[in-house]
Amino acid sequence: MSSPAGSVGAVRGTQRTASTRKPETMTDTTTAAPVAEAPAAKAPITRLWAYARPHLRLLLIGGALSFAGGLVGLVQPLIAMDVIDTLSNDESLTRPLLYLTAVVIVGGALAALGPYLMQIAGQDVVLTVRRQLIGRLVRLQVAEVDRLKPGDLVSRLTSDTNLLRTVASTTVIGGVTDAFMILGGIALMAWLDLALFGTTMAMVVMVTVMMLFIMPRIQNATVDSQKALGDMGSLLERIFSAFRTVKASGAEDHEISRLDAAATTARDKGVKASFWEALAGVAAFMPVNIAFLMVLGVGGARVASGAMDVGTLIGFLLLLFYLMGPISGLVASLSQLQTGLAAIHRVEEVANLDSEEPVEAERMTDRDGPAQVAFADVTFRYGDDLPFVHHGVTFASSGRGLTALVGPSGAGKTTVFSLIERFYPATTGSVTVDGVDVADWPLEELRGLIGYVEQDAPVLDGSLRENLVMAAPDAGDGDIDEVVKVARLTELVDKLPDGLDSRIGYRGTTLSGGERQRVAIARALLRKPRLLLLDEATSQLDAANEAALKQVMLDAAERTNVLVVAHRLSTVTSADQIVVFDTGVVRAVGTHAELVENDELYRGLAASQLLTAA
Ligand SMILES: Nc1ncnc2c1ncn2[C@@H]1O[C@H](COP(=O)(O)OP(=O)(O)OP(=O)(O)O)[C@@H](O)[C@H]1O
């Protein structure tokens, strides 16, 4: 074997492991798994800033326009005072009324345009977050997906990110604008009358203290409420992933009651969050109303005593009245901010998951022809707290030909394929392809040379063509026709209403088990792989198709290296070599005839499948 060209060291490290993630402790299957137990690496507010920063320009323009709209509104009470003075002086109302009209029109236009621009920025922020999440989710390591619940992840991508829209747009800028309004109003109050100002400030302090108490509770309640939604999504996803089994088991009522319980929990948690939000509203509203009454009382007395004129009192009251908007706006913004921070917390947990980062890497090799595979004393287990599945597996499949992996169920045959594909790293020992440890291959290149047909031959929602070209997007019509013929799919394509462009349903439910397997085989062959991994590829085929595909396998083995996990030995009796697995070790390697002669386990398997006399 010639060793592949190119630097090995330069392409290491394509798998990313979040250093902050704690080991998983998942045993409960009824609720959504916590995506990660460690808190997000950065404070949610810092992350919010990072997400919003690329859209800052639009946010600031929108915010400035909204702020200008608010300022224009602030002038209204002053003009009203002017109107009263003008009336009491018997002067013409034309000038103040013109001002008032201009203020209303300009204020209205600014109040519409500013929030609209901020909403656009908010949608852009959500898009940025979703893009990051999508990239992360699709590249998650297989081990992470083993322990997670897709329904919960879907909820994070859809529902949680949606909560960010308002917070990233109107909330922060609106809150800041409202805060400035309030500060401006307070300054004006101090300028108008210090005694009334003091009365009002007591109330402002009261509101602040109450908010400090309520806000963290809103955030916690929102996290709980969003988690409950995720749990519900997980349960629903669980049912649809085994829909026929649920029905055939008559388990609808049981599943409905579980979903109902999850929906009730989501409702209860939502109500709790709403309770704190409502309390925040009251906590802001009540003191302002009390302040209004107190100003009326104290101000009335001051007017009666001549310490203050009636115009100033009315101006002060109007100012207070006007400030109710910004005050309740600020409180609503703070509540929304808590909701958004809760959402960021859940979104950021996904960032802590282990994923396979794409890295630019030099190609290792331009070799064609069959790839060689070798396992050298490989041990492996799926988790630190799980038993070893491989206890020192050693075998080689050196180039062109058919290698069959056989042995009892659970012996570790499928795991061999997972290690070759680098879905998991071997614990000790080495798994090499073309003499290079799989850990040293650029991940994309390694997987690019392999065609893999999984045990349950999954197909994805979409058209038949989309499913076939998934691993070979550049395949031409001629190539597709050829694999369709080779995989005995011609009849299926002819009978489908739109041929190759017919949709084949969620998880290929409109296809038979055998058809799904043949689609998966055709997909793998279309890639023209240097290494073909077939897992139980013929288990659901009828006798005629099994014989035909056995021929396909042997044909492929003429050109490439084919590894097949087989339970039905009839399909692999003519394999170049058969590797017999037993409880995580290779107990024998040989041809069918040699193994029947020398290996007791294989002889038993062959006898039980009527391939030899017992
Ligand atoms: N993702 C996983 N997490 C934890 N344990 C796993 C995982 N996948 C497989 N196992 C366990 O590893 C062992 C070997 O599984 P593997 O699928 O490799 O066996 P196999 O020989 O292919 O079996 P079969 O012939 O039934 O398909 C089994 O005990 C199985 O329960």
Automatic annotation (TrEMBL):
GO cellular component, one term: plasma membrane
Membrane-related topology note: Multi-pass membrane protein
Biological source species: Glycomyces paridis
Family annotation (InterPro entries): AAA+_ATPase, ABC1_TM_dom, ABC1_TM_sf, ABC_transporter-like_ATP-bd, ABC_transporter-like_CS, P-loop_NTPase, Type_1_exporter
Descriptive protein name: ABC transporter ATP-binding protein
Keywords per UniProt: ATP-binding, Cell membrane, Membrane, Nucleotide-binding, Transmembrane, Transmembrane helix, Transport
Main location per the UniProt record: membrane
CDD domains the UniProt entry points to: ABC_6TM_LmrA_like
Taxon lineage: Bacteria, Bacillati, Actinomycetota, Actinomycetes, Glycomycetales
Region feature (Disordered): 1-34
